[in-house]
């Protein structure tokens, strides 16, 4: 009870000017709250005439502090399994080239998840999300068409460089990646075997230069 | 709009007389008056706010400790998401991070210690308002430094860190509360010794502002949770794997989200269970905002908490689940939070010995 009194029921009769000011404060708080929730809603909702019209204002308010990413396993969970391999290339003194074998840079994540109640985000998110964001910003030509895509390409390359370094200390000047994606088998319902592609899909990325300073 | 009217109501000299007015405008007026009182008279759900403060502070400290061996890879100057890449992204998105102000390793280690200390102080509720601002800056800085390393849990934790700044989350279960309790006898001086005039007015204004800010922020947190679940549910409705009830089968077979393969396979073998759980998680998420005005919300909250506990164990995402469960806590009444310590004391009393009367603690 004392706690409630201390938490500040307003005293019965504050001066009039003060009451006006307090009313104004309340109005501003309510207005900002309503505006915030409305803008968040419009940002999350599918594109509609209102959100198109106020697109600039909505984005200006939401980005960066109030981002909303609620595509949690949606619209569909990932039904594929992707392995990512790297190989490195070295120029030899006589002008020729040498390439290494393909090395699975994603295997370590799978191994580190096993029997781990709380895997690190370097295991569950780093390469997975770097790959997803590369795929989201690059087409079949594998060219980074804008600065945004280029940052994603660099990030993926830097991760690959670090993972290769953990595996082999051989110097190299170039690196290239490939992914091998397979569909996860649908559940066995006891009926006719469901049709899905069992053929793995390979995506080969171009050679990227690697400089010692990582630029 | 109604917003403008609320500010005018308290200026009516005899607002009590307005209440019994039977006309439509009179009723509307008394409704607005009532809403204004609820919003301004006292901070609501102080225990829920304190619970969220403790929970988010603790979870953030756990994350920082857990990732301590990987901190350079994730947020440090040596991260594959280099400071240069982060700064380039900031130019395009308007983000800001304290961590990219310098590329020196010492500076990063210093920031890490400050972040950990802030999370601990926030959990304890020491000078909560000031520390909550620092906590929000820390969470935003680490989030922005590498936006490609988190999940939806990090997104919600950032939003909550910002919203909690505006709440009075340090009034309960905190060092601030303990200090206030100790100082309380001094405050009950005879009326003559009370501060008067301008100081009293400033005190009233400060308490009033804190109350309104708190209540608005709590409502925003509730709305945020509704938008989160509504969106997460409605996005899933558009997916054919959720529609045919096999979505969880694929989730359970994702290599990075099956720390216990035997357990995942065991669950996956029970197709009825997988189907029911797939549908239930979509249904409950979509229904969530509509259940909040009835007692059904407790059933839905219990299902959501169960769902998140399942995600924590089966998918190896304990922090994500913790962040979501803490968000759900905003909907629990203070009654609930106060009864928990009471129950705990009663249980302890019962365990201490058969001679101690159980469940009769005052």
Automatic annotation (TrEMBL), chain A:
Annotated TM spans: 20-44
Domain of life: Bacteria
InterPro entries found in the cross-reference section: DUF5819 (IPR043857)
Keyword annotations from UniProtKB, A to Z: Membrane, Transmembrane, Transmembrane helix
Protein known as: DUF5819 family protein
Species classification: Bacteria, Bacillati, Actinomycetota, Actinomycetes, Micromonosporales
TrEMBL record, chain B:
Cited PANTHER family: HTTM DOMAIN-CONTAINING PROTEIN, SPORULATION-DELAYING PROTEIN SDPB
Domain HTTM-like stretches: 41-336
Name assigned to this protein: HTTM domain-containing protein
Membrane topology qualifier: Multi-pass membrane protein
Transmembrane regions: 44-65, 107-126, 133-150, 156-173, 216-235, 272-293, 300-326
Keywords: Membrane, Transmembrane, Transmembrane helix
Species whose genome carries this gene: Actinoplanes sandaracinus
Pfam hit, one: HTTM
InterPro entries cross-referenced by the UniProt entry: HTTM-like, HTTM_dom, Sporulation_signal_mat
Keyword Transmembrane tagged: yes
Primary location class: membrane
Compartment list: Endomembrane system
